[in-house]
Specification:
Length: 394
Amino acid sequence: MKAAVFHKIGDIRVEEVEDPKIEAPDDIILQVTSTAICGSDLHIYNGFVPQLRDMVLGHEFMGTVVEAGPDVKKVKKGDRVVVPFTIACGQCFFCSQGFHPNCEHTNPEMYGPSGDLLKEKGGAMFGYTDLYGGYNGGQAEYVRVPKANAGPKIIPDGFTDEQVLFLTDIFPTGWSAIKWGKVKEGDTVVIFGSGPVGLMAQKAALLHGAKRVIAIDPLEYRLEKAKQVNQVDVINSNDEHLMEKIREMTVGRGADVAIDAVGMEAERTLLEKAKAVINVEKGSMKVIEMCTEAVRRSGIISVVGVYATPFDNFPVHRIFDKGLIMQFGQAQTHLYIDQCFEYVRSGKVVLDDIITHTVPLTKASEAYDMFKHKKDDCVKVVLKPGMKETESKK
């Protein structure tokens, strides 16, 4: 089969690889019909999360079940499903409490309580390095899906792939951000990052009754997308009066809730990059810093942007002085996927309006380059294994 294979930093190629096989009685094999490139994939592509051996990437995918192990009861051959990006058993201590990203049984080589970068991690994810289980991802024609009684969700007839594909990750991630932020009717929410996750967090905030949503991003075309699809207020993060403008929009107090939908790969100056090298840091925590400034006293900060290393000068002084509440982590996709789907089913939310490019899987290498370098006003790329190269569309 064809698959997008990571070889080294900046090097992803579509190649022929061995077809996946059933390895455990609760596995399924999925024929992938649609998959997407996530900002988290760029963490591997850019070297922020290390991966030393070749691996098929991709944790946002859906398709049709073509084979099922003997213990699989939840789905059957022929079912069309979307698959949460985290791999979870559904039964352990953490899964039973809704914390599926911390599953105790899916990442046996690297799992542990410490959470250190190269020592002990949480549960497994598709296509997200050996640190998180070493499972091949779904940017391929076929993919093995373990623990199929816990993860995949059957999609009924009448929905296009594009309408439901983002239930795999980015909509439940945006939803988790808003749930963790305890957003309620009348709140003002400031969301740093207007990429795919930020756009989904904006949608989720409005569905939770936020009175005002303020989108922050350094790229004007992404701010235009936020205005177009979500009708939110926008401010460029490079505005020298950013914090003053946020406070002007929030009766001088700051936002009730601040969301970090960027993570460690925020834009950085040369001085910030030099500091990161000296402190052995990957990327920057400047968005967390901005969240602590932008949120009001006794407010809540929710962080779904990815961070992979410790950071010097963490703003604990401001967090203490303002009495802030913070929650970080991988999204609770398994917990929220059904709820998120009901909003799609009812027509209360549209997810496919953020897609800017749809290309064949065979053009994955070019698509990664475009997404990384923000070419052609790229916000979200969908890859189609069955698409001909002449059928690419924007």
